[in-house]
Amino acid sequence: MDAQDVRNDLTHVLMSTEEVQATVRDLAAQIDRDYEGKDLLIVAVLKGAVMVVADLTRALHTHVEMDFMAVSSYGSGTKSSGVVRILKDLDADLTGRHVLIVEDIIDSGLTLSWLKANLETRGPASVEICTLLRKPDAMKVEIDVKYVGKDIPNEFVVGYGLDYAEKYRNLDFVGTLAPHVYS
Ligand code: XMP
Ligand code: MG
């Protein structure tokens, strides 16, 4: 699939490459301020958060460790099931650690609220959340998110790690998926 074909699958570009990069740098600056002198463990949620975590951690001055977790709340569709499964658990012991969960997007919030509660049972010093995108109109649970890159409309978006049926993850911008692709 070349660039022109991808454009046909999108209604518009929601966040340009430049805006994504500036937003990630801004998140990194906030995290640097808050965690200065602390031992920080970044937990990235696979697969969607790979791009965010790769750029975010390289923009940080704070020394961090990185670990990865894979959970599933979706099939290949576009709606949250609310059922969360751990597909790959962390390697790290969280006892006494400052943990920052890095996500691509918060939609209903069901996945993250479940994940945050799960990690909090493992004895960490703190657990906070950083997400590139959030859909406030789709939120179904109250969830305290310390770092939000951008609030977006309740539409299905792809690119910069976000997929539809495993496609579009490697776009370096975020676009809104055209309904004809998934209906
Ligand atoms: P919830 O609803 O539990 O969902 O907050 C979080 C997970 O759902 C996926 N998700 C999306 N993926 N475009 C995507 O490519 C979207 O617009 C979208 N909305 C939710 C994503 O995997 C996220 O981690
Ligand atoms: Mg995801």
List keywords for this structure.
183 residues; alpha/beta; Rossmann fold; three-stranded antiparallel beta sheet; 5 helices; 9 strands; binds xanthosine-5'-monophosphate; binds magnesium ion; nucleotide binding; glycosyltransferase; hypoxanthine phosphoribosyltransferase activity
Write the layout of secondary structure elements.
Blueprint: H1 3-8, E1 10-15, H2 17-35, E2 40-46, H3 50-59, E3 64-72, E4 85-88, E5 98-106, H4 110-120, E6 126-134, E7 147-151, E8 157-158, E9 174-177, H5 179-182
Parallel strand pairs: 2-3, 2-5, 5-6, 6-7
Antiparallel strand pairs: 1-9, 3-4, 8-9
Helix pairs in contact: 2-3
Magnesium ion is lined by residues 45, 48, 104.
Describe the structure.
This protein is an alpha/beta fold and about 180 residues long. The chain has a single domain, classed as 3-Layer(aba) Sandwich (Rossmann fold), CATH 3.40.50.2020. It is about 25% helix and about 30% strand. It is built from five helices and nine strands; from the N terminus they run αβαβαβββαββββα. A six-stranded mixed beta sheet has the order 4-3-2-5-6-7, with helices on both faces. The protein is globular. The two termini are about 20 Å apart. The site of xanthosine-5'-monophosphate has 20 residues, from strand 5, helix 4 and strand 8. Magnesium ion binds near residues 45, 48 and 104.
| Sequence stretches where pLDDT stays below 50 over 5 or more residues | none
Question: Would you report the number of β strands?
Answer: 9
Alpha-carbon distance between the two ends: 20 Å
Looking at the chains present, what oligomeric state does this protein adopt?
single chain
Determine the strand fraction and express it as a percent band: 25-35%
Order of SSEs, N→C?
Answer: HEHEHEEEHEEEEH
CATH topology (level 3) name: Rossmann fold
Count of all domains: 1
* The CATH class: Alpha Beta
Mean pLDDT over the residues: 93
Q: From the coordinates shown, what is the CATH architecture? A: 3-Layer(aba) Sandwich
